[in-house]
Amino acid sequence: MQEIVNQGLVPSGKVKICFKGKQKELLFMGIKLHDKPSIEHSKKVVKMGQDVVKFMHKREGKKAELVLLEALKLEPKSPDLLYNLAGSYMVQERKKESIELIKKIHQEYPDYSFARLSVAQFHIEDNELEEAEELLKPLFTKTEFNHNEFSKFCELHIKLAMAKKDLKEAHSWLEMWQRMGNEDDELLEYWTEELEDIFSFI
Prior knowledge:
This protein is mainly alpha-helical. It has helices spanning 2-6, 43-57, 61-74, 79-91, 95-108, 113-125, 129-136, 147-163, 167-180, 186-199, and strands spanning 13-19, 22-28, 32-34, 144-146. The protein has a two-stranded antiparallel ribbon with strand order 1-2. It has a two-stranded parallel sheet with strand order 3-4.
């Protein structure tokens, strides 16, 4: 069924199927997943990005920030570098600056998915669910996601459904994520374990 949806023979959305004698409603999306970076960079900036990842893993936010500021001198209009800069602020417990920068990135680069997803998450955390839904809607028109984008996209729909107390909707999103996502996705593993007991009653 997922392959049929991917080929455009059936539109994305919920499909009713009979499974083990029971009718179930499953969610399918016609998208392709890949591991390509969302934005291409020069070799020098790629190397700097690798250093940033190492610093962030060590929770050395200030060192990551300094490298990102140097990278931005080379490629000042790269929303992903700015987004990672916001991440370095968060590691340094500069939450307000981080949130303000992410919102600014979304305003200036509305097609950059990670900033859009983060702003939607801020709305969910503030219980502004309609605002979050409006931000997520345009992403349904995307035909390709890299795996990290897709994981965040699914996670936010689960959070949104849980905020609405709609367990069936959350379950549909988790099932689709399990069908399409990577088995070694730590975020998927977390949500599978987190919701296992709750979903056993559905």
